[in-house]
Amino acid sequence: MKAIHQLATVEQILARYQQDQPLHRFLAVYYRQNKQMGSKDRKIASRLVYNYFRLGHALQQESLINRLIVAEFLCNTLSNSFIAFYKPEWEVSIHLTLEEKLALVKREFSDFNVLAIFPFHYHLSEGIDTTLFCSKILVQPDLYIRVRKGAEKRFTGTLLDAGLNFQHLGEQTYALANGTKLDHLFTDRGLYEVQDLSSQQVGNYFKPQKWDKWWDCCAASGGKSLLLHQQQPDIKLLVSDIRASILDNLDERFLHAGIRNYQKKVLDLTLDQSLYLHDYEFDGIILDAPCSGSGTWGRTPEMINQFEEHTIQFFQDLQRKIIRNVISYLKPGKPLIYITCSVFKEENEAQVAWIKEEFKLQVESQELIKGYQHKADTMFIARLVKA
Ligand SMILES: C[S@@+](CC[C@H](N)C(=O)[O-])C[C@H]1O[C@@H](n2cnc3c(N)ncnc32)[C@H](O)[C@@H]1O
Fold first, then answer.
1. Distance 277 CA to ligand 1 centre (A)
2. Spatial contact of 143 and 176, defined as CB atoms under 8 Å apart
3. Which H or E run includes 76?
4. What's the CA-to-centroid distance between 366 and ligand 1, angstroms?
5. Ligand 1 in contact with 336 (CB < 6 A)?
6. In whole angstroms, what is the distance from residue 8 CA to residue 120 CA?
7. Which positions in this protein are listed as binding S-adenosyl-L-methionine (predicted)?
8. Is the ipTM reported for this complex over the cut 0.85?
9. Among protein residues, the one whose CA lies closest to atom 13 of ligand 1
């Protein structure tokens, strides 16, 4: 009976969701309007809907109930009331490996193709294992935390006291199950940042020197700047973004992190900004570019449904406009750190090749950080040095 009710709820959510906003935002409003749903009902409904979107474009010809059964089976490792009710014969196999379960689904649905989960796979960057990447969309990424230097002991102790499961991956990096709530455990808001594992790793490419002048030119709420500042607090930092509101978030995060000495500008970098930047020169520029975000769709699988292939070209053009408008502010011999959270070659290695050709920068290093292998986002980073 419960499962029948769950199915009806999912049908209603999918019918109402216009796919014009992130799913989590839609669900928050939906649950507010449906107060009769208890927290367990909400949790199950969210799981079912998210898993449904994790199936991407696979089995599109199948009925909703069949797609939900397959999604629930592939995305869960423990049995649940939905599978028990609608597909009891699969219950005993739910703990199998993803590979084994994919084979089992294929036996029942001969049309099933794991590559159809992510139909844009023809655009994947070099080095990505296409089949593995597509199958890992079925696995929800973890929650990653970067803890302030020196606060690791306190952070670990609080997690232990709260009885939370976690992994301490490196000095300041922790992994927890997605959805773990930490806010109520810590009053000091600068003690930790939520930052994906791959996003933390890009920091290895910054290498700032004391008294350097750096520009985080698409800074948003400052994730990369915080990482940069942690590596070298004695730098002169300019942060900019096209959105003033997101820079307000940056101010707040910087305040909590104790960073007071920085300059901030609202700039549209598709336009020539020489009027405002004519006497600026930098020892390092971080360009964490606006991009498809396709490396993060494990967290927002509804995007696979919403994305249109031509958008890749849109982002490539946008990124080139921005690159063109920032490179002249780089001192000779100094790095441009180009970052995307995209898995598309047009936004990644093709951009690096273009920068090299167009502006004669040397590629010091580039890497596709394969987060899909570690329940994390996939990102691309290149360190290019001006001649
Ligand atoms: C990937 S996000 C940056 C994330 C950020 N570095 C962080 O670690 O939190 C890209 C940012 O580029 C900004 N952006 C988009 N178009 C822009 C433009 N024309 N000029 C400047 N910034 C732009 C967006 O507002 C967005 O905040």
1. 18
2. yes
3. none
4. 21
5. no
6. 31
7. 241, 268, 288
8. yes
9. 218
Q: Taken in order 151, 152, 153, 156, is the CA torsion positive or negative?
A: positive
Annotated binding site: 241, 268, 288
For 147-158, the pLDDT digits (tens) are 998 999 999 999
| Pocket lining: 225 vs ligand 1, CB cutoff 6 Å | no
**pTM (predicted TM-score):** 0.96
Indicate which residue's Cα is closest to atom 17 of ligand 1.
Answer: 242
CA distance 269 to 370: 29
Annotated binding residues for S-adenosyl-L-methionine, written as ranges, equal 241, 268, 288
Q: Output the CA torsion 139→351→319→303 (10° steps).
A: -20
In sequence order, the 6+-apart residues with CB closer than 8 A to the CB of 245 are none
Domain segments of the chain as ranges: 2-117, 143-194, 197-385
Q: Which fold has domain 197-385?
A: Rossmann fold (3.40.50)
Own/partner pairs, 177-184, CB within 8 angstroms, 24+ separation = 177/142, 177/143, 178/140, 178/141, 178/142, 178/143, 178/299, 179/143, 180/143, 182/145
C-beta of 203 in contact with ligand 1 (< 6 A): no
DSSP H helical segments within 55-136, as ranges? 64-75, 81-86, 88-91, 98-108, 130-136
Q: From the CB of 223, is ligand 1 less than 6 Å away? A: yes
- Whether 341 is a known active-site residue: answer yes
The encoded tokens of residue 237 equal 């930092």
What does the pLDDT read at residue 382? Answer: 98
